[in-house]
Write a structure and sequence with these properties.
The complex is a heterodimer. Chain A has 5 helices and 3 strands; from the N terminus they run αβααββαα. Chain A has a 3-stranded antiparallel β-sheet. Chain A is mostly helical. In chain B, about 60% of the residues lie in helices and about 5% in strands. In chain B, β2 and β3 form a beta hairpin. Chain B is rod-shaped, with a radius of gyration of 35 Å. The two termini of chain B are about 50 Å apart. In chain B, about 25% of the residues are buried. The chains are: A mainly alpha, B mainly alpha. Chains A and B meet through α1, α2, α3 and α4 of A and α2, α3, α4 and α10 of B.
Chain lengths: ~120, ~230
């Protein structure tokens, strides 16, 4: 299945790679219900283009052992799946956070200053 | 009534998702459709998608079903193509041995800790700063701290009383004051110092090992966040 490759927006690959650590980060404090997690990420401008793509990501994180899931009854509707961080996930998050800051600073040090209007992330309504 | 329109919108959307993800293994496809379905159900139960316009916005934000299915496809090859890559991360035996020797091993006088320190510096999974931390907190480890603590703490021998008869026949008593060696640390300082030098190496060891583990987890999949 072709998702566009090099023709996509320049940041789409990078965004997708970094997104999983943003997901882990949101789970750092407490288990979060999938819908809540997606809503919180979706509320951050420029973070997610298609909110639905977070679910395959969560599924992969679960298969990799970085998050675990528990089911809880809901007052309205079917049982809800809560996601929480495993020790592996927490360690991966910590390692990424340190690396990311170095990487971000390195990129920032090379990039030319961009006028604010171009730098603003695009977002589908 | 709008409810049926909304229901049809949602049903159409989920059917498109189901069709678009036909190439996925059936359990993966089932999970995906169920998760997206319960997302929509939760939004509606929440009142966040009360009317048709709100539901359309909700579905738009979720994205095209084909895009979601493609993302699910992209997320699957990592473990399908590399079976075991996830369940068998690269060995961290070297790092584990290093931190064990630096802590528990330090009770084997000098040698245990030294070997641990060598392994610490040999590993490529720690930064120089971390290696310095592992070495300097605490040199010779908790075992060394106990031995060293015993050596430098003050020890005194008691007064020595010697009675001797002088040539004139008078009995003289010579008192030689006991000798003290080492440094006297008051308990309020010495005890916490000892506890810290016993505990700190273990804390550092745990932190270092977890970092090594996390870095090892990165190794088989360097494409994870740079894209393939």
């Amino acid at each position: 299945m072709d998702t566009g490759g090099a023709r996509q927006q320049p940041l789409s690959q990078l965004r997708r790679g970094v997104l999983e650590y943003c997901v882990l980060s949101l789970l750092d404090d407490e288990p979060v219900y999938g819908f809540d997690l997606v809503r919180r990420l979706g509320a951050i401008d420029g973070m997610v283009i298609s909110e639905g793509t977070i679910y395959p990501l969560l599924s992969r994180l679960r298969r990799e052992g970085r998050v675990s899931t528990t089911w809880a009854e809901s007052e309205s509707g079917p049982p809800r799946r809560y996601y929480s961080l495993t020790p592996d996930g927490r360690a991966a998050l910590a390692a990424f956070a340190a690396e990311w800051r170095r990487f971000r600073d390195a990129v920032d040090s090379l990039l030319p200053d961009v006028p604010a209007c171009q730098a603003a992330p695009r977002r589908t309504p | 009534m709008t409810t049926s329109t909304v229901d049809r919108l949602v049903a159409d959307y989920l059917a498109r998702l189901e069709a678009a993800s036909a190439a996925l293994p059936s359990d993966r496809r089932h999970e995906l459709v169920e998760e997206i379905g319960s997302h929509i159900a939760a939004a509606r139960a929440d009142g966040a998608a009360a009317d048709e316009a709100a539901v359309r916005t909700l579905l738009e934000r979720l994205g095209q079903p084909e895009v979601i299915a493609a993302a699910a496809w992209d997320d699957s090859p990592s473990d399908d193509a590399l079976p075991g890559a996830v369940s068998d991360p690269p060995s961290t035996a070297l790092e584990l041995t290093a931190v064990l020797l630096l802590t528990v091993g330090s009770f084997l006088p000098v040698v245990g800790w030294l070997v641990g320190a060598v392994l610490l510096w040999v590993s490529s999974r720690w930064t120089t700063a971390e290696k310095l931390l592992g070495t300097l907190v605490v040199p010779l480890g908790p075992g060394g701290a106990i031995v060293l603590g015993g050596l430098i703490s003050q020890s005194c021998s008691g007064d020595v009383v010697v009675s001797q008869e002088s040539t004139s026949g008078v009995v003289e008593t010579v008192v030689t004051q006991g000798a003290c060696t080492g440094v006297a640390l008051p308990d309020w300082l010495g005890v916490p110092l000892l506890v810290v030098s016993l505990v700190a190496p273990f804390v550092v060891a745990v932190v270092l090992y977890r970092r090594a583990l996390a870095r090892a987890a990165f190794e088989p999949r360097p494409e994870v966040w740079l894209g393939t």
